Amino acid sequence: MPIKKVIIPAILIICSLSIVGAVYFKILENPLVKPNAALSVTASYEQASVIVDGALAGKTPYESKTLKPGEHTISLKSDSGSYETKITLIPQAATVVSREVGTGGAFSSGYAVWMEKISNNETSLSIVSSPTGAEVSVDEEEKGITPLNLTNLSEDNHTITISKPGYEPQSMYLKFKKGFKLNLVADIFLYPIPENLENISYSDTIKVYNLALSESAVTVDAAIWAKAVAYFVKTRGKPVTFNYFVDSDGVIYDTTGLKVTLNPTAPITDSITIGYLAQNKGDLSDKAKEALSIFGSATPQKTAKIIPTGLGWLRVRSEPTLNSSEIAKVNVGEEFPILEEKDTWIKIKIDDTTQGWISATYVQKSAQ
Q1: Order of strands, edge to edge, in the sheet holding 355-359?
Q2: Which domains are seen in the chain, by residue range?
Q3: What pLDDT was estimated at residue 159?
C-alpha cells in the first residue's frame, strides 16, 4: 500500500481522533535545558509499536525527551496496518504524534499541525487535506473548502472541523496566538461501507449486503477494502458483523483481507453474512453467485406484503395472539421477510432488531 509522507519543519501535532481533541504548543524556554527534542506518540483504537529511524522505541503511548533535533522517520505498526512519516524535531520543542493507523491508505486518518512565527501580530491558519475539496468549519461556522487560508481568527481556542461526503469528519481544538501561523495537514478516513446497507435477497440463512460506494478509491483493491470494512465495523461498533466478502469476480476474502478457498463438502450450519464488494448498486454478478454457492444454493425467501386493512396500517404483536402486546405498526404496501407461520399468524422481520407477529388475514404471501 502507498505510504504517506509528511515533512514537518516545526512544532507538530498529529491527531487522528474523530472526536474533538485539544492541541497545545509548548516551547521549552529555559536556557539551561539541553537542546534536545521531546516526542510523544499515541494511537487511537489500538496499541501500536513505535519505530524511530528503523529501531523499535516502544509501544503507544510512548514518550521521549532525549531525541536529537533534526529529521527523523517515525513509523507506527499495529495489528491492522502501518503508517510512516518524516518529521523534523525542533530543539527545546515538544512534538506530539497521534494517529489512527487503520488499514492504511484512505482507510486511516490523522492531522499534522505546526506553528511558525509570522511578521505581523495576527493569527493565521493554512489548511490542506487528503482528499482535497473538504469543507472547513471553525466553531461550526463554514469557512470554505481545502486548500484554504484563514486570517484574523481571535486569539483563543477554536474547534476546526474538516469534512467531506463519504468521509468521517475530523475535528481539532486549536489554541491560536497572535504573531503565529498554524499549518494544518489533514487525512480523513474514507467510509468503507454505505451509510445505509442495501440487502441483496439470496437465501434464508445467508445475508448479503451490497457495499458499493461512489468513491473509486474503495474499489481499487478488494483485499484492502474487505479488511477495512471489518476494521471499521469493529472499531465503530456497527451492528452488523461480516463473516466473508466476495467481489464481482467471484473471489472470496476473509475479514483480514486474505483470499480464501472453502471446502465444498464442509456443511454450513450457521447464518452467514457476506459483504459484496461491488462497484455499482444492484444484484450479484454471475461469478459472485457462483462463488457463494459454496455456502448453499440460493433459495427464494417468502415475504409478506401488507394489504389494505381499512386503517392504512397493521399492528405487529409480540406473540401470535390478540391479547399480546403491540410492538410496532407496519404500513399497507410494505413487504417483509417471513420468519415463521402459526395458525392464522405470520412472524415477520421488520429490521435487524425487530420482529413480531401479524394477522395473516391482511397479508399477501409471495417469494422473492
Answers
A1: 326-331, 313-317, 355-359, 345-349, 335-342, 302-306, 363-367
A2: 13-187 (no CATH), 198-295 (no CATH), 302-367 (2.30.30.40)
A3: 94
